[in-house]
Specification:
The protein is α/β, with parallel strands linked by helices and about 290 residues long. Helix content is about 40%, strand content about 20%. The structure holds S-adenosylmethionine. This is Chemotaxis protein CheR.
């Protein structure tokens, strides 16, 4: 006898539930994106994902999510716009200065013992944080032996990061952050101001490699002494956070450092027993396992 498959059918209703239909359309949209571009957004935090998709709808002047699907499938340039919308790129120089101060006070002493220092800056957005780190390394005499790999999955942001040119109107705020982070010189020593813009000095750039990397599907980096990843994991669900944290663990040397900043934490993650806490409030951890 052929077994019968029980499929759950929904009773027909003349007035469809709009939220349910939107959820279905989003599911199909995410499948189309994965099928066509191999980007899996299904483990992004639901609320922010829906909000960003809605923003994208408005900007593209489309009526519903279903209308986005053929555009995603047949217009790669539309996918680029979508990706830009999905990636929140808010950042600043010496953002949350006390995090940088803790890094300087609690991590650099150990980094000084290495002849070469490998650093992975994951989710670097437009690069402001990376240049801040390079400035601090320079002030501690560590920049010349450091190699920073700064990665993001947003190519548009990476281009801005590579240029290292920022609006001069932000400089007062950045100078204040730099001082709070324990800056030892003058922030003006690190950029050249021209026509309303500040261009970061080339000697900082020489030690930074900007590269495309998707935390969801790409490989780990090898032999890292320090990994920084701030304000990125908040956009992922618990499963994806754990997957990315395992990737960080694999990428670090034994006794390497992981900096998550004050919005994210290893608490309740699958990595809690593999790290010890170095700075509680700034969420700086040191790897203690040998994986
Ligand atoms: C809010 S910014 C954080 C920038 C910086 N780390 C900071 O804290 O100022 C978040 C960044 O994470 C990046 N991002 C999001 N999902 C990603 C993924 N799957 N792989 C790589 N980068 C991702 C975004 O493109 C964006 O540039």
């Amino acid at each position: 006898m052929i077994p019968t498959t029980k499929t759950k059918t929904k009773a027909y209703s003349p007035r469809p539930d709009e939220d349910e239909i939107m959820a279905l359309e989003i599911k199909l949209l995410l499948q189309a994106i994965e099928f066509r571009y191999d980007y899996d957004f299904s483990h992004y935090a639901q609320a922010s994902l829906t909000r960003r998709i809605n923003n994208c709808l408005k900007k593209a002047q489309l009526n519903n999510v279903a209308e986005m699907i053929p555009k995603i499938l047949y217009q790669p340039e539309f996918f680029e716009l979508f990706l830009k919308e999905m990636s929140v790129t808010v950042t600043e120089m010496f953002r949350d200065p006390l995090v940088f101060k803790a890094l300087r006070d609690k991590v650099f002493t150990q980094l000084k013992t290495y002849s070469r220092i490998n650093i992975w800056h994951a989710g670097c957005a437009t690069g402001e944080e990376v240049y801040s780190l390079a400035i601090m390394l320079k002030e501690e005499g560590l920049l010349n032996r450091s190699q920073i790999y700064a990665t993001d999955f947003n190519n548009h942001s990476l281009k801005i990061a590579e240029q290292g040119i920022y609006k001069a109107e932000k400089i007062t705020e950045y100078t204040h952050n730099y001082q709070q982070a324990g800056g030892k010189a003058s922030f003006a020593d690190y950029y050249q101001a021209k026509h309303g813009y500040a261009k970061m000095h080339n000697d900082l750039k020489e030690h930074i490699t900007f590269a495309h990397h998707n935390l969801i599907k790409d490989q780990c980096f090898a032999q890292m002494h320090l990994i920084l990843c701030r304000n990125v994991l908040i956009y992922f669900d618990k499963n994806l956070q754990n997957k990315v944290l395992s990737l960080f663990n694999k990428s670090l040397i034994h006794r390497g450092y992981l900096l998550l900043g004050d919005k994210e934490s290893l608490e309740f993650s699958n990595q809690i027993n593999n790290f010890e806490t170095i700075a509680k409030d700034q969420r700086i951890y040191q790897k203690i396992n040998y994986e």
